[in-house]
User: Fold this.
Amino acid sequence: MTANQRGMIVLGSALTDVGRARNRNEDRVHFWAHADVSLAVVADGMGGAAAGEEASRIVIDTVQARLPVEFVLQNQATLTERDLRLTVQAANHNILQHALQHPALKGMGTTVTLALVRGGSVMVAHVGDSRAYHISPEGTITQITTDHSFVQALLDAKQITEEQAETHPMGHILYRALGQTKDLKVDTYSMRLHPHDHLLLCSDGLTRHVRRHEIAQLTSQSTETNSIAQNLIALANMRGGTDNISVIVLYLDETASTPQHSADQLEQQTNVTHDVSTAHLEAEDAPGHVATDDLARQIDSNPKA
Assistant:
């Protein structure tokens, strides 16, 4: 069998946790994978009371309606960044309409990071400060998305340093999110993928507490996607858990043949769609889980600049 006859299969896990400081979880995650095709979404709602929960829920509902499993598998070869952008804009429209119909929810909004993996590439649509990362087998991490935050704008203008950005008091004020305006600009990205790469989507509840090199370290050392997500959430909670924390981890495993997309397997794949919400995630009994004290020692013993 020649190298170009080999393919990839997507393995993944999606988890969301309320954190240590909040009473409710306004994050939503959605994930499914079938052979070498996968769809993953993180939405971080905002707006107080139940508004943030509603906004992020509407995002997931819209994605499921416009990009259902069957449709994506049947049309994955022709889907483009425009399709992802239109899906996010439709979610924005639905949020604005819902707020008009329910005045108590006025001002609700959400971030969204939506990734579609197919074969050897990924497309991402993005608004807000949730993030998508690519991690190579060697542990090199690349942030695919750019935050739509006040602090990122200061960084881009070279008015502050990376170190100052980490502790800036306005670090999580957004200048772009769903629910703000009907004319929403959606950023889109595409990149090639290779066997043994990881993709990670997360809300800012993770990146408030876990630095980029730590994400790379904990992710690249394992192929157990559920354990990676659990360990990252545990580390964020150990350091305060000041916000809801959502993590989706995808691993591109190598397979001996080109994956086939059989309609007979659709029901099985639909069952791995996740909208998971856990209160204070406890993962001590999970395979590959590392106790939080050991996590801290593991990170501290491998410092990076």
Notes: Residues 19-145+173-300 form a domain with the Phosphatase 2c; domain 1 fold (CATH 3.60.40.10).
